[in-house]
Amino acid sequence: MALWQWVLDNWVLVGTYLYAAVDVVLRLVSLILVPRNRRPGSALAWLLAIMALPIVGFPLYLILGKAQLPRRRRIKQRDVTALMHERAVDIPDSALDEDVPSWLQSAVRLNRELGAFPLTGNNSADLEIDYDTSIARIAADIRTARSEVHVLFYTMALDEITEDFFAALTEVADRGVKVRVLYDHWGSMSHGKWYRAMTRLLDAHRIEHYPMMPIKPFRDGAFQRPDLRNHRKLLIIDGQVGWMGSQNMIAAHYDKPSNIRRGLHWQETMVRLRGPVVSELNLLFATDWYYESDEQLDEKTLVTAPQDTSGSYECQVVPSGPGFVLENNLLLFNQLFYNATRSIRAVSPYFVPDESMLSALITAARRGVEVELFVSEIGDQFLVFHAQRSYYSALLEAGVRIWLYRAPTILHAKHVTIDDSVTVIGSSNMDIRSFILDMESSLMVGGTDFMEKMEEVEDVYRSRSRELTLEEWEQRPRIMQAIDNLCRLASSVV
User: Fold this and answer.
1) Which Pfam families does its entry note (predicted)?
2) Bridge partners of 313?
3) Together in a domain, 136 and 271
């Protein structure tokens, strides 16, 4: 009793010593805990944050420092990956031509090892870069459905631009087509009344739908950091027609008043597919459906014989995300960058590479490869925009040409073309979030005709951009340099 009274009488002194003790303990524990199985840059950034203010930094690390799904969900991932390997056996493999470079053959083997899917031949692929036209074409494809429509978008909302898309879904559902819809919980829910309008419409027509990666921290029996997201964009009709790329199902200004005031709108690239590769998209959708619904879809409806095999493109789907052991998309990009001999053309709205990717691009430019990077002149995300700017000096000094897509458009397309030999297109940005935290879908495509289509798209983007020079960049205000570098440090905290 006397001790407790003494504590009450001297609470300021006791509180000071207690705070100091906790401060020291947190610093020591973080030195052991943080560097474990973590990139050096990320570990240093977290340690700096914790050492600066342990009482705040350490709890943040416990919430956001683990880029891993809960154990129960990882077990699901292993089961699904094994199932994908088993089911993908029914998708015919395509042999690469003999004159294809050996590095491309090794990329195909790498993708098969990482993501389970084979290289398929006899595929058709068309590109669409007009925002509203892509939605109209998707709606038209949906209306041809006879049995199933599978829809997965990071962001989905019912607004004046997407209403025909949702009208198409409800029309086919009402005539007996099975429609399954997935959307990222945070990516869609954050759009308020347009999200609620969408869910009400889907419910009214008895369309089965689920939010992906719902923000329920202990849903799978262990804490899951809230910013692990499903960023994929996929749509499959009857297992015969597939769409994928960078575009979400929402108006081009994302229904945000701030974007409308600034005149911001998004520029996208989508690819429409026919042929055996559509079954790979269907299998990938089925994995996410299983995660959220616990329903395993029938293989007979997922892997179907393609009705159109007139195409000449070789395609391979590459999934990635926190459910995989390795960073599939990063490994593929780096493999291609290090083996490029003539050209690299990279389009990414959020370019925050890790050390390995930055080194791969700089090395390629230094050894004579023509490297072009397409990014936006302005940004919609302060931290990422300024973090990516911090890499421009090193890239420009190495000889990389940087094209700034003119404001007020945000270039949101995501694709890479290597040596006029292969393209990777999909939902994956070239940033640490896409490598570690987001579930992504990429498509590797080979074929001379498709490369010509990609060059036409890149020519359009180049015509709408201005080239950033090293001289111009070195003259930017010092305060902007400081902000860029500070944001680069913060972006490493993953």
Assistant:
1) PLDc_2 (PF13091), PLDc_N (PF13396)
2) 123
3) yes
Backbone angles phi, psi at 358, to 5 degrees: -60, -45
Tokens of 312: 């000449």
Per residue in 427-456, is it b (16+ CB within 10 Å) or e — as a string? bbbbbbbbbbbbbbbbbbbbbeebbebbee
**Given 279, 311, 343, which residue is the final one in a domain?**
311
Q: Strands, DSSP E only, in 215-365?
A: 229-230, 233-237, 241-245, 265-267, 270-274, 313-320, 343-347, 351-352
Q: What is the pTM of this model?
A: 0.89
Whose CA is closest to 385, among 354, 417, 411?
Answer: 411
Q: What is the structure's pLDDT at 219?
A: 59
Nearest to 417 by CA among 388, 455, 448, 390: 455
Evaluate whether 121 touches 152 at the Cβ level (below 8 Å): no
Residues 203 and 171 in one domain: yes
Nearest C-alpha neighbor of 64 from the set 230, 213, 226: 226
Q: Please state, in angstroms and rounded to a whole number, the distance separating the CA atoms of residues 372 and 83.
A: 39
Burial class (CB in 10 A: 0-12, 13-18, 19+), 310: exposed
pLDDT of amino acid 67: 65
Q: Are 184 and 265 in a shared domain?
A: yes
Kindly state whether residues 273 and 373 are assigned to the same domain. no
Indicate whether 135 and 271 sit together in one domain: yes
Distance between CA atoms of residues 71 and 76, nearest Å:
9
The domain boundary, picked from 47, 64, 81, lies at 64
The radius of gyration of the chain's CA atoms, rounded to the nearest angstrom, is 24
Contact 151, 180 (CB under 8 A): yes
Cis, peptide link before residue 408, omega less than 30° from 0: yes
Q: Tell me what pLDDT residue 68 has.
A: 66
Do 213 and 295 belong together in one domain? Answer: yes
CATH code where residue 238 lies: 3.30.870.10
Angle subtended at Cα 121 by Cα 120 and Cα 126, rounded to the nearest 5 degrees: 100
Domain that holds residue 38: 2-64
User: Does position 224 have pLDDT exceeding 70, yes or no?
Assistant: no
The model's confidence at residue 301, banded by pLDDT at 50, 70 and 90, is: confident
Mean pLDDT confidence for 309-329 = 86
- Encoding tokens for residue 246? 């960078």
**Percent of residues, the chain, with pLDDT higher than 90:** 60
H or E element that contains 466: strand 465-468
CA dihedral 330, 333, 335, 339 (to 10 degrees): -160
